[in-house]
# Entry
Amino acid sequence: MKKIVLIAAALLSMQVATATAADIKPYAGVGLGLFELDPGQNKKAVFGGFGYAGASFHEYFAAEFRAGLTGPHEREEVGPLTETFQVNWFVSALAKPKIEVADGLEFYGLLGVTSISTSITPLNSVIERSVTKTALTFGLGGTYFITDNMSVGAEWVRYSSNADAATKNGANFNGLDVNGFTGTFAYHF
# Structure
């Protein structure tokens, strides 16, 4: 995983080095929506969100940093017994290749890494088990510019692939599969 991070950082720094100061266009925003949490079986969607900051280095390339979390999901398994799981926090560094397909409408891909902390409180337990991992992250989305400085968008992102049904209620909790289906709003400086 360290090699992937180093390669991504090298590619990003090469892109930044070739961009002139006039071409760099920073932006910041928020994303809110549903996050699908899967502990290895029985996916559930919860509300979550993230803040992000990024910069367009070229008309076809941007880079972004994100930080977010989700609410907990509590589900009944057997009678009064419940199981709770959630994303405690995540931080992502993403490359964002993009293309304008119509006036003010861009489609983009996301590729990078996410450090993510997930937790589960299994049945018959009051002890929360947390796992922090670094995972490959990828996704697709679209952005529409309402004005030159404001945009709205929608996207799907796979933040983590860590689930293992065999260990979801055991001491060897591997983490959650996490997909985000979010709407975004950004201000472009």
User: Anything to note?
Assistant: The chain has a mean pLDDT of 85. The domain at 2-188 is CATH 2.40.160.20 (Porin).
